[in-house]
Amino acid sequence: MSDFDLSLTGTIVLPDRVIERGHVAVRDGKIALVDEGAGPEARERHDLGNAMILPGAIDAQTHSLSQRDQEDFIWSTRSAAAGGVTTIVDMPYDEGNLVCSAEAVRIKVDHASPQARVDFALYGTINPEEGPARIAEQAAAGVAAFKFSTFGTDPIRFPRIPPALLEECFAAVAKTGLTAGVHNEDDEMVRAAMARVKAAGITDYRAHGLSRPPLTELLASLQIYETGAQTGCPAHVVHCSLARGYEIARTYRDQGFAATIECCIHYLTLDEENDAARLGGKAKINPPIRPRAEVEKLWQHVAAGNVTLVSTDHVSWSEDRKTNPDMLANASGVPGLEVMVPLFIKGALDHGVPLTWAAKLMAENPARHFRLDHIKGALEPGKDADITVLVDRPQVYDAARSGHNVVGWSPYNGIELPWTVAGTWLRGQQVFDGKDVLSEPGAGRFVRPEARA
């Protein structure tokens, strides 16, 4: 009898190449073999034809607890499994528990562990009144990165970190070897622009883009990267909607600095003049959805290698928080865990972008970024057998019909996905079969960065 537990044959999509007819074999929850040709005998063996077999996706930016008694990990990780996402990295701005201490990390891990259907890692942050004093203890508690903001959404739950304090925080994070990720909008400029919009009486979809013009984002990005350069801290812009932002990040990298940048799937999919105009509050995201011309430029940056990560910035606000006719009165953010991978595949095919970028931007690079690459992010022997399978079965996405999300609405409703997720495996165990999420709550684990000297 074969000593392999699982064997999958299909089109293997790796960060550096595509194996048109290849296989992945799994033993004891780990990748054991990746090669050309039909897969070996195994206790469970599937020849999937021309199906794409990718490393399980790592969503670098999720918000499972932004709204109390709403989504929680029981639903976010269910959406993840159905979307081919095997690890989520959750943000620290939880309603009722700002993750800014080792104790807060412990509380969140204890809360999430019995619910999680896929693996999860965590961001940490600070309480501005405490400054960077608790950064080291959070790193010891297992956070995978730190998150700050140059814009204040809420003074307690999502506070602005002013420039001098941000410098102190970067210096403290640099000592941990982790990365400092920052929400990139200039607070003073946004508030001035918002005042102008309100004074002009503009309340429709245009209000949001006008209240956050490009310069508000670009000035903040420059501050983030220069602060990283001055402190020796790896600096990361957690969501960039503008081509110019990727040019700025590339300039810093070319100068030898650790300057990474993240593109959310909504910036590669939705545009202001069509989608925001149609969806109103359901397309309100910070930074805003930009015009279609900007979307096309972002795909050029994907192809050029100027994007470090692709994520969702997933948050499942209840529908009443997203349907106010006054655009600026709506909560910011959208759900996306269930469709990030198929949306990226669709966009890549539409733009002639090699599929290898899917494996790099949604698996390999996030694993390296969060120092999880000792176990995650690749179809390589010895790493966790986290696998996503997509088949060329066109499907018009409908969040309510899928049943795998808590809200039943999505800005991506009505988009035809040429390739859809037909199977997800977490550490060699199937957690989604193309229709049903199979993993029970508690199947997911808290994963933490590898200790490095």
Structural description of this entry:
- There is one protein chain.
- The chain has 13 helices and 19 strands.
- The protein is an alpha/beta fold and 453 residues long.
- The chain has an eight-stranded parallel β-sheet. A seven-stranded mixed β-sheet has the order 3-2-1-4-15-18-19.
- β2 and β3 form a beta hairpin.
- α2 runs parallel beside α3.
- The longest helix is centred in the middle third of the chain and has 18 residues.
- The mean pLDDT is 97.
Topology:
Blueprint: E1 6-13, E2 18-27, E3 30-36, E4 44-55, E5 57-62, H1 72-82, E6 85-90, E7 93-94, E8 97-98, H2 102-112, E9 119-124, H3 135-141, E10 145-149, H4 163-176, E11 180-183, H5 187-199, H6 206-211, H7 214-231, E12 235-237, H8 243-254, E13 259-264, H9 272-279, H10 292-304, E14 309-311, H11 340-351, H12 356-369, E15 387-391, E16 395-396, H13 399-402, E17 416-417, E18 420-426, E19 429-432
Parallel strand pairs: 1-4, 5-6, 6-9, 9-10, 10-11, 11-12, 12-13, 13-14
Antiparallel strand pairs: 1-2, 2-3, 4-15, 7-8, 15-18, 16-17, 18-19
Helix pairs in contact: 2-3, 4-7, 7-8
